[in-house]
């Protein structure tokens, strides 16, 4: 396994692999790797000749009052995990390497970037889309792996890849959860033991909504879930919405396949989760 810190060097290596006929898989991460990330890495290991994992805590996707500085960065542990899971290259650029002082170009996926999480985290998805576009070009990936855990992010990346004619295929991977059903997240490390137990309730409430969606009207499904989310100790809801599974537009009584997306604070930790729902 090689650790590459320079974008041009990573791109040259990738181009050599392309010429040799290798298929490349990219797993973009912000590090603090857990079993969710590992599931993506292992999937690339199965599908691709070469696996590149990028580890970059992207400042352009954090708001001024967000946790950029305190975001966990256990890099030695992350590198050990990558090695154990047969990663070929870890792309580990500095902020200056990815965003020089003269950087002027940003990618925006209009409308989709301004709703749900985007309404509460201004500029977040612009930062995400820009860095992912750069990573696609640097890695020359045939396939890039994203978790369904970040459902809005996945839909935005899919749209960006389609609209900008990237050849990279987006592979959506299932959400890996703890026994309590809490979705694994690097931010779970901010939670104390009691908050962790309470945070597990979010996915249980979404699961119940999935059952209710089969028989009950949309408003009732949402009403029941909201009441329960509000009753989680220390919780504050940013949003809880049922949207069309494919394009994130508001669901209606006619929607057959939907997704329930929620962002809920537990104490000082903002958690997101979602559940696909079918009629
Ligand atoms: P992050 O490091 O949080 O930017 O996440 C990197 C990638 O891992 C994204 O595609 C996430 O959707 C994915 N991911 C994060 N948590 C999970 C999880 N619990 N299950 C599956 N994928 C995940």
Q: How would you describe this structure to a colleague?
A:
The strands form two sheets. Strands 1-4-3-2-5-6 form a six-stranded parallel β-sheet, with helices on both faces. A three-stranded antiparallel β-sheet has the order 7-8-9, covered by helices on one side. It is globular and about 55 Å long. It has two domains: 2-173, Rossmann fold (3-Layer(aba) Sandwich); 186-274, Pantoate--beta-alanine Ligase, Chain: A,domain 2 (2-Layer Sandwich), CATH 3.30.1300. It starts with a strand and ends with a strand. α6 crosses α7 and α8 packs antiparallel against α9 (218-230). The mean pLDDT is 98. Helices cover 39% and strands 21% of the residues. The longest helix has 23 residues, at 193-215. It has helices at 7-19, 35-47, 75-84, 95-98, 117-120, 124-139, 151-163, 193-215, 218-230, and strands spanning 2-4, 24-29, 50-55, 89-91, 143-147, 169-173, 235-244, 257-266, 269-278. A hairpin with a 2-residue loop joins β8 (257-266) and β9. The protein is an alpha/beta fold. Adenosine monophosphate (AMP) binds at residues 29-30, 36-37, 39-40, 146-147, 149-150, 173, 175-176, 183-186.
């Amino acid at each position: 396994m090689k650790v590459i810190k320079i974008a041009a060097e990573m791109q040259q290596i990738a181009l050599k692999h392309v010429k040799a006929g290798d298929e490349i898989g990219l797993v973009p991460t912000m590090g603090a790797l857990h079993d969710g990330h590992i599931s993506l890495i292992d999937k690339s290991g199965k599908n691709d000749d070469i696996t590149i994992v990028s580890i970059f805590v992207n400042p352009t996707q954090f708001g001024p009052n967000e946790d950029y500085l305190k975001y966990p960065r256990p890099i030695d542990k992350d590198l050990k995990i990558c090695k154990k899971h047969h990663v070929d290259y870890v792309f580990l650029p500095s902020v200056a390497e990815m965003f020089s002082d003269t950087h002027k170009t940003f990618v925006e996926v209009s409308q989709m970037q301004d709703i749900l999480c985007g309404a509460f985290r201004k500029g977040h998805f612009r930062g995400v889309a820009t860095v992912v576009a750069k990573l696609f070009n640097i890695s020359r990936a045939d396939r890039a792996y994203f978790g369904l855990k970040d459902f809005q992010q996945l839909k935005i990346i899919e749209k960006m890849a389609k609209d900008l004619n990237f050849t990279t295929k987006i592979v959506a991977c299932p959400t890996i959860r703890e026994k309590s059903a809490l979705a694994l997240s690097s931010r779970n490390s901010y939670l104390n033991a009691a908050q962790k137990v309470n945070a597990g309730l979010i996915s249980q409430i979404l699961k119940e909504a999935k059952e209710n969606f089969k028989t009950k009207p949309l408003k009732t499904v949402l009403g029941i879930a909201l009441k329960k989310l509000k009753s989680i100790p220390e919780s504050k809801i940013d949003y809880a919405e049922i949207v069309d599974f494919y394009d994130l537009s508001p669901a209606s009584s006619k929607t057959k396949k939907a997704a329930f997306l929620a962002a809920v604070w537990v104490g000082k930790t903002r958690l997101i989760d979602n559940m696909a729902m079918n009629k």
